[in-house]
Design brief:
heterodimer, A: mainly alpha, B: mainly alpha
Chain lengths: 194, 99
């Protein structure tokens, strides 16, 4: 949280990028602590690795500017702080009562840890699976790896359309990255790229 | 404080810090960083509550959000670089649309 606050009040983009990197690594550490190793690894590789490299390169291509967002308008700053504080309190008040209702509503749902052994047994009896498969299934029916398995079943099963849509989105983003730098963006009369 | 409350507190703080960066900063890149902070706050809730409820949909949603956020950052950064070639990548200098 400290680095997130520091990100807002940094004077330069480099400082903000370093603070964001610290926040991303801390979020990855929280994922690891909660047993979501796959998500933690993805967080480190995609966010703290790839995205931060892109951000640093984009920072290096632009002009270095010092910005003091807190010194712009004293009255506006105080008003913003009050609004943000009220929003924060509202979010905290939502977290308390809403959670037990949600838990009671979803208490009858099949748990991931309970679903995993059934999945393992179902897949161990499939034709064409080698003899090592039951041992593999039994080994993977334990707590570790079971949520990832259930998540993969969801992503490539009932939610396959969403997964495909995200794949198409990434493809379109890659095409946009190729096309965008050639477009004449910017204010009219601005300096032309050299 | 319960783990649930702690997770809620951290994600709410991240969300509001991202919102503050989005509102207070004028450089486009800094605003993009604030947006990433907000996406991470949402991801934190997805992962924590997916684990607490035993619902793999939360983790699946977190993976999809990471992929969408990566695509968003790539497009945003290429837009910022394209803008910074012709003018400053600042919200004050981008006031008019062409065409």
């Amino acid at each position: 949280m400290l680095f997130a606050v520091l990100l807002v009040f940094q004077k330069t983009l480099y400082g903000s990028a370093i603070c964001l990197l610290a926040v991303l690594l801390q979020v990855a550490a929280m994922f690891f602590a909660w047993g979501a190793e796959l998500l933690g690894l993805m967080q480190v590789m995609v966010y703290a690795g790839a995205i931060m490299v892109l951000v640093v390169i984009a920072t290096m291509t632009g002009p270095t500017r010092v910005e003091r967002p807190w010194a712009r308008s004293r009255a506006g700053g105080w008003l913003g702080a009050v609004v943000l504080g009220a929003l924060f309190l509202e979010l905290l008040s939502l977290g308390g009562p809403a959670a037990p209702e949600y838990a009671a509503r979803h208490a009858s749902k099949e748990r991931v840890s309970q679903a995993a052994p059934e999945y393992a047994a179902r897949h161990a009896s499939k034709e064409g699976v080698s003899q090592a498969a039951p041992e593999y299934a039994a080994r993977h029916a334990s707590e570790s790896g079971a949520p990832e398995r259930a998540m993969a079943e969801l992503l490539f099963g009932s939610q396959a359309l969403a997964t495909e849509a995200v794949g198409v989105l990434i493809l379109v983003a890659a095409l946009a990255v190729v096309a965008l730098p050639g477009l004449p963006l910017g204010a009219p009369g601005a300096k032309e790229p050299s | 404080m319960s783990p649930e409350g702690l997770s809620w507190l951290v994600s709410a703080a991240l969300l509001l810090c991202g919102l503050a960066a989005l509102v207070l900063r004028r450089q486009l890149l800094a605003m993009l960083l604030g947006l990433e902070l907000m996406v991470n706050a949402a991801n934190l809730n997805f992962v924590f509550f997916g684990r607490e409820r035993g619902d793999p949909a939360g983790w699946a949603a977190a993976i999809l959000v990471i992929a969408v956020a990566a695509a968003e950052v790539v497009v945003g950064l290429s837009l910022i670089i394209a803008l910074s070639r012709s003018s400053e990548a600042d919200t004050e200098s981008i006031r008019e649309l062409q065409g």
